[in-house]
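Board notes (copied after class):
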Amino acid sequence: MTLFWRVSVVIVSVFLLLPPAVATSPERSFKFPSFPLTSCLNGGLLICMQNSSVRPGGYLALIPEPADGMDPNLLENNVGRVLYSSPAISWPANFDTNFTVLIKKNPNASGFGDGMAFVMTNDKRPSPKGSIGGLLGLFGPSTKRNTTGQLAVEIDTFSNEYDQDGDFHVGLDISTIFNNDSAPLSVANVDLAKQKPITYRIRYDGWSKQLEIMAGYADDSPLKSVHNWSVVIASINVTYVGFSAASGPSDDYSESIRVLSWYFSYTPLPEDSLASPAGGKSKQGVKRKVAIALAVLFASCFLGLVVFFGAKRFMKWRRWRWLESLSRSAACAPKMYTYEKLSKATRSFSSANLLGKGGFGSVYRGHLSSPPSVVAVKKISAASKQGEREYFAEICTIGRLRHKNIVQLQGWCHSGKSLLLVYEFMANGSLDRHIAAGTLCWPMRHRVLLGLASALLYLHEECGGTVVHRDVKPNNVLLDADFEAHLGDFGLARLAQGTDRCTSTTVLAGTLGYLAPEFGYTGKATPESDMFSYGIVVLEVVSGRRSLLGLDDNNILDHVWDLYVAGELLDAVDPRLAGKFDEEEVKRALMLGLMCAYPNPSQRLKSRQVVEILSNPNAVLMAMPEGRPKTSVPPALRIRDGFGGVAAMSNSAEMTTCMSPHSFSSTLLGR
């Protein structure tokens, strides 16, 4: 009898563990190895809505792509959605889809923005109105927290305030743009910045209710798992599948999104698959036992965890109080703002108000009500000590500077999870956008160069010390309503000390393409290294070309030197000026740029000389060499004993008179 029951239990267990048979349910699928031009025509297999289209190369362009002579503004604030024209799935079911996507930055864009999603909906609706930027064509501004009948797996290329995993991540969006869960693509060793075709695979198990996304470069195999989600898709009852994408309000963060191929299949499941995950009651019993064991373990550790997290919370509170008191004592800014006021002014730091994004934070347009004014609010992450260093570098440097060509700091805020700086608003944005668009006439360009030189003269000689900016580039030059230049972004600035008027660093600080050649040998930032960066900016402004990170085949300095040696210097002038400029004045500006970017720092022009030359057309120009000088580093500049015997300075220590160097470095760096 005992043997009978044992055999019976084994047989029953085997049948319970087997998944229900579904052999009679046919597998349904469609595939697009490429996309014919007829795909989106009436009667075609796809529906291309809003700004999406099929392109002659046999791919889907989810948002508009740049073309010769195209207005850059047409690339901003676009949405696109492509759906399979017929219902593709019925529930319950398993499904499996894979698609290959190529995402590339648009020419002259400094970053990606904003991304795409694989979307499943219960109807053939287009993307909601206003679903631009970080809303990815999925949710409108009024519905981003409450939308039904839709599920999306997003591939996000721009880090918004509500994104937990920064740039280049995947996330699951069901009823809101705020991800139910997300994971970085780096988990699968995939980097969108390489701008290579990437294949994504999304599969759903209707028994276990597990949704998995995998990724890998299209020329590699196999794909690697990025993340799993537990979700009951049948309860959402989505039947149409496709893609959605959007671009934001800035052509400086823009991209093209191409779907190169797409495969989809699903397998119907019986109704009892909806009852519970595979394994039924037996699996639930195992889960219950595991839960009891975990509860016992948790109970034994609970007291220790309470003490640990309580102490951690207390230390965090103490740290924020310390940072606030340090901000009050360090800031020479006139006003401290509340986080609530700045959040209201920027509409909760909406992506629609985003003006730009840099290495140390994002900048938003803000509208203050009392008194009515428009400001620029820079939001710096305080999640790391580096964010704190940049925050105090800005406060303690720009907070005490007063010059008509330097962006004025109007206030600050230290609250929540961010450090906020409030600046005067520059209506015409950053200089790099105008260089790319060719919107400035020659008199305006000349005035911009003079204003920037005046700002550097003030920093180097007239502010009561020698301040080295260390990151002079068009992105950090802002233009007001009258196109007057204002130098900003002092997150890398340092107060030079000692007779050699230099600062030292153990890490590369600045932007490639604008770094003086001696910086790689000495680690020292000097007024002369600022003037090298200024010289590159001069050449960019006159020629209308970008430095493009100093790549050998696009190096603007090499290009202008070659034209100078060949006696064809005027060929470097931006052709969009159409000859409407003073030839002598332009030649003087180009030669001035070359001499500011001279290889030997001792032979570079000083900021005072530059201001005199630009202000006075009769000022004597410097003697120019007949040929291009060779790049060499004088023995006096080469590294001896680390960094030439100069103590390496941290990114925030010893750079301001707002507090003593000892108190600043011991408190900020020692924590």
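Comment from the instructor: Confidence is low (pLDDT under 50) at residues 1-27, 278-282, 502-508, 636-671. The radius of gyration is 30 Å.
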